[in-house]
Amino acid sequence: MDIIKRSMSSPLEHQNEDTAKKIKLQESPKSKQEGEMKAYPDIVKKDNYDFLFDDENDFNFVDMDISRNQINFTKLDLTKWQRCVVEEIQRDRKTCALIVRVKCTQSSYDCSENKENINVMEDLQATCYLRGPWSTAEINEGDVLSLKAKWDNQLNSFYVDKDEGICVVNPDVLIPATTVVGSLFCRRKAVLQDRFRGIDANSKIASDPLSCRLFMVVGSLVHELLQIVLSLPAIINLEQINKIAEDLLNSSDTAFMLYSSQLKKEDVLPEILQFVPTIHNFLEQYIRPRETSSSLPMQAENFQGHICDIEDIEQNLWVPQLGLKGKVDVSARVRKTYSLSGNQGKSLVLPLELKTGRASFSMEHKGQIILYQMMLTAIGKPTQSGLLLYLRDCIMREITGSRNEQRDLIALRNDLSRYLTLSSGRLKREKQSEISIGKYEQPFELPEPISHPTACAKCPYNTLCCTFAQTDPDIKLSTHHELRKVMKDSTDHLYAGDYDYFMKWCHLLIMEEQESRKTNVTAALWTQTPDEREELGRAVGNLMLSSKEIKSDESRFVHKFNVKKVEQTLSNGNWDLTTSGFSVGEYVIVSTTKYLAIASGLIVDITPDYIAVSLERNLLQNYADCKFVIDKYESQVGNAFNLTNLSLMLDNTERSRQLRGIIIERQKPSFFKTLPKIVSTKGVEIMKLLNSVQRKAVLRALTAQSFMLIKGLPGTGKTQTLVAIIRFLDIMGKSVIVTSHTHMAVDNILLRLKSFNVRFLRLGSAARINPLLQEFSETHVLANCRTETDLSKAYNSFNIIGVSCLGTTHSIFLHRRFDFCIVDEATQVMQPTVLRPLYFCDRFILVGDPDQLPPLVRSLEARQNGAEESLFQRLDCPEATSVLTLQYRMNKTISRLANALTYKGNLQCATDDVKNANMKISIPNELVPERWLQRALQTHIDQSVVFLDTNDCSQRSLDYAQNKLVQICSAIEQSFPENENSDTGKFESKSQARSKRLSKYTNYCEAAVVARLIETLLTVGYDSDRIGVIAPYRAQVELLRRLSQEHHDYHKKHSGKSLNIDGIEVNTVDQYQGRDKDIVIYSCSRTGCGGERSRDSEILDDKRRLTVAITRAKHKLIIVGDAACVQQYSPFKTLLGNIPGLCKITLQNGKYDFQWQPLLDNLSLVVKGS
After folding, report:
1. Angstrom distances, CA of residue 103 to CA of 47, 145, 234, 435
2. Where does residue 929 rank: exposed (0-12), middle (13-18), buried (19+ CB within 10 A)?
3. Model pTM score
4. Class of domain 523-564+575-633
5. Of all residues in the chain, what percent carry a pLDDT higher than 90?
6. Which fold has domain 82-110+119-169?
């Protein structure tokens, strides 16, 4: 057969495309084929879908019956769903069929009892011909496919064509069914809506016509009303439905919905009540027994049958076979008297989708039902039809999807996945000169814009759409294209600099998104087994509901899960859920062993025996006796949040114009020349608590007309300064948003305000808020609010609002504009993240230190292109910035080192007491005979900084870990993702991790030195809560934590008196930001001069991280590391160059009474003896 190799083909044609894109075909010499096939590794290590669903539950909307003995089973069997990787792509010259050779991504789960079969399954391959409409699918070598095909004896191969089989491209990206059908009219809007999620939440709703907001809210409430009625065990009458409707309208959830949509109860009440009779008619017609006379005549086109039972409500579906997800309004068991698909008289479970508008039976509505049919069938619940109910007209019809409709919907889904996953964007131009002025390389590919006068003009995404269209060098709109008219109104207010800024940050955010996609944690739910995920610390399995009673709070249900006692599940037999790696406030996915993601919610409590999760549904109703798995969930909402914030910069509003001037044009701030009178009266007591530098910063903040910056060097009291500013604004009657990128940073300020009896409201989930602030949380404050009016009064009664940056999507910001916004730790927030709260204030104050930790950016490419530049850094200039230089933390020796490394002499000790403070401790020689230890713990002020040089101890550390601490070593390897390859996103095998990472991320020799230092300090009576231990890597932190606990247990067991280790905080540099300790011990971790300089090297080469580490110490700083190794990194070279030789101690056998073997033997004794 003549074949030619192709690089890429076009997607299926749709109405949005004017012309199909050309396919480039290249000759593929046979001599190159074998080498090219082997060049593509097994990109996804795992699995087909057999472990989730039974074999007999295959898709039944395609006739796949086949004589199994006809298939050569040395091939991968594609007659059932298989998840596989494309090894090679070819094109049949005669038939134009696309020929894909695929390889199984079999999981070990299926073969757990027969390990010999694992490698055999992973090597299985098959060839599949994609014919007809599937032949134009955009597929590349290395892509993941989900295939179900039919066998052809003549071809000796599988095939998918217009009548048989399904091919899903990139199935690990689960696209909502509503997004797929919503793209039927305009795919460009569907993609923009997904990427810029919530664009009309905070910026558009206020300007939406009342009718639009009313329609959305009424639709949601009617859905809920019908679901409540259907869930009741007994048939109810009209009066009872009316009462349920009133109760629903009076609920706190409805009140918040009305408040969020800026509606009143009076607006929706008549709309809701008009549905009460139609719901009653629906019950009479479809729920009551057939002998009961119906109040409504049955139309011939309506569904002929009745509903026997309600199986489920709001059933959540994640279907990786189809690359889809969705939520079915109602799963109803029905009995048909007549059916388009047959099955008269049989009891069947069908999806029921409710619509509150006029009956249209549009393809968008029918398509949703068709996709739900396919999804239910794929997860083992065969369904050939579904019910579409238009409640307003009380019309319900059975929808049966044809093969053509099913195929085209999946093809549309595949096309969308290409745009949403960045897997096949446009080829980048080699020369930027090819792009004309005013045009930009696009950050991602978008479908062609449609041309519709009304839809384009009213679309909430038209500014975005026009911005991309106007700047895209590949889009040439015709003279009469309707978007040209919209473009003038949507983008005339924007300038070249605005486009530069917007496009630059879109590119940076997409780079970050691409990096996060390399480790698709969500896909692990179906590509890894629960045991594998549990080993990696991402899941907890073998869980059962611990109670037959579920605590409910209106729409939320708190479930308690405990570990099911399964033989040989746990090697130690004592499973403590508090050590599972999960934490209170974490968002999780709950699955059963058969069905994925049946619910999701926040962890509200963890004990050794159970995990309590607040879910949106009661699992007892359908899953009481199931075994559950709880998984961590890494949402992409942060990237969508940032993109949405960027898009708001394009708006033609006064505030957007002001922010463009400040941020993009970098306009300098201006200040009022007179101070408020209140400063000299009520403000006197506040000023007394501040030093002269802090007072200047406070007065400057109070007179700022647009913005100002406060640079708070380490220990200079920036939090105290912020609290003073907020107290002043409070007594002046000003409204203030207090925000930061973390909940902890927000809570630290609010805790200080609490001590001054300042009244404030803390927004956000109660699980994320400091327990000492629960009385100020909105959950507590708004507990008795039952109407939207109550909510409005309560929210408006607070002038000071505390909220994280991500939390500024809260509805309060639709109702109120604030006088000031104060952003703490602003240098740790990405520019787009901090934009959102700035839209809701007149003036803002950014506080931070650009010489400390930058924003967290995972992508190396994004960092190299400027993604670490915070808004503080962008706006930092003498005209805008007040610098706090008087510090109250470090003594003069540590302060001198910080100045030499970073601050160039600007950091000054505020008082002589601070300058001369030293470690108050007495270490008797008879108690600590080792001279190296005596020198390391010297209390003289000039020896406040000590470097303990371990030399190259990589081999010693590796040998010790593998021979002495195997159990602890293995546990750390399994728990921490430092074994992730940051360049490829793949997971190394455990043997690879052990050989590579133990010498790179964990250092057992340094750990032994640190343990000896801590043991000595505690033995002579030093308070544990005044000691801090810092390491750059999480694996080293975990090692030090576990060894500390072993010491605690050992001394308690053998001496009857435990060392008080509990107060010692061991953490990473990032977690120590904003904290301090009297004594800080820093473990550099890296040793040996070889090794790759990847992300781990970047951490040690980051002067800002080292600055944070050394400035946490008040009186004593002890650095433990391999001097020759760390001096490869310029910050450490500078640091070591400024530490006197007297304060450098080489840990060498026989020198200053130091011996490695006794030190390590003592560590082994402690671990074994505990």
Report:
1. 11, 10, 53, 40
2. exposed
3. 0.86
4. mainly beta
5. 62
6. OB fold (Dihydrolipoamide Acetyltransferase, E2P) (2.40.50)
